[in-house]
Here is the input.
Amino acid sequence: MANQDDQFKKVISHAKEYGYVFQSSEIYDGLSAVYDYGQNGVELKNNIRNYWWKAMVQMHENIVGIDAAIFMHPTTWKASGHVDAFNDPLIDNKDSKKRYRADVLIEDYVAKLDAKIEKEIKKASKRFGETFDEEQFVTTNPRVLGYKEKGTLALKRLAQALDNEELDKVKALIEELEIVCPVSGSKNWTDVKQFNLMFGTKLGASADSAMDLYLRPETAQGIFVNFLNVQKTGRMKIPFGIAQTGKAFRNEIVARQFIFRMREFEQMEMQFFIKPGTQKHWYEYWKKERLSWHNSLGLGESNFRFHDHEKLAHYADAACDIEFKFPFGFKELEGIHSRTDFDLSQHEKYTGKKLQYFDPEESKSYVPYVLETSIGLDRMFLAVFSNSLQEEELENGSRRVVLKLPAVLAPTKAAVLPLVKKDGLPEIAHKIVEDLKWEFNVQYDEKDAVGRRYRRQDAAGTPFCITIDHDTLADQTVTIRHRDSMKQQRVPISELKSLIKEQIDVKNWLMKMRS
Here is the structure.
């Protein structure tokens, strides 16, 4: 765990040092669990959003996008169930006076069991060397099986207790598992209570006539209330999807882990409207499709896994998460949910208006079922950033810190470096910047020795450095250095654009989904 904590601290520190993420209102000592994206962070965030949008909307003829307002009629949240059921189970430690999410305490306990399993696998792998069969080991080793059974049972009991709203059983489970407060180390717990996560606000000029509103806790409802508007104006035929990216707000009492759990965050969601009875097919289809999208970025297939929900929402008939191996362990990155007809039926009930689709093939109307894919943009940012931050030992014994961001997402695609600040080299460098900036984000950098500039750009995540030297004056060629391999090649200035474009082209990256 200590090693994981150290790695995570490096991620947070690097994100600030290189202009990716800052604490919000930092000069006023900050605001808990609220963050600002800096000059590099905003570019990376935009590039992730764009990469998702292209894969989801542009590449699917039957998926369109919308941008719904953050404020919605308050009855929306009554219909969706958020007013009555959007709660987190909270528990306080009497000694530290710290508050925790009860379910997260139990999930962290299970994560520690997973870490023990990993340890056992590593030990056995060392002992048996090349003859080691991991699959056989994890299915037969008594210690591993014991840890697995303990974890599965704990999550099952948690899900049942929350499902039946038996908060006393959640507390009993925490006590039985002997879970201690991470701060005080004591087991002196209060009872578990439910806490609604929605932020309330008011709409109107005077206090007397103001309407009580909520900041939306999810973006999905903006899609559902616009279902008919989009279907009719876009002449959409089922199956079809509506995608949206945007801010959502949750009053997380136990917000933590940097930008993993924030009070103001951004979602990228797509609601896919389907014929009742076809949900199983589309559930499997979107599981496969979404995992392929993640894998196209080359973050490492072993860093992703599916986790089926033990506890299903009362309206869902299937739900799973794509989990990613963050520096603090496997956690949810994206949810794929089969929501049946709950959302549209609820809005029908509360508005008295029909939200149905007339199926010309069946010659009948019905309320479509919905298959949802929902990913946190900030979590995706953290997954990409933390996975890319690496420290390498070089052949000469020195070390370098490098941010190996997928080139398609990197904020700055190339840095243009004149070897010296004289002899006409800066002028050629500026000319190259002028030419390339129409296609890509590029940066001019002339400060310090060129080796130091390379290191700086490596740490900032820039995939290419273009160096202009005295030979450039004679033959119009430059040196292009590749961040990941540190290899250098001599190329004509005229070929720079096509060379960089090939490496960062969205099409080339997304085509990996089809291979």
Remarks:
- Residues 102-128 form the longest helix (27 residues).
- The longest strand covers residues 329-340.
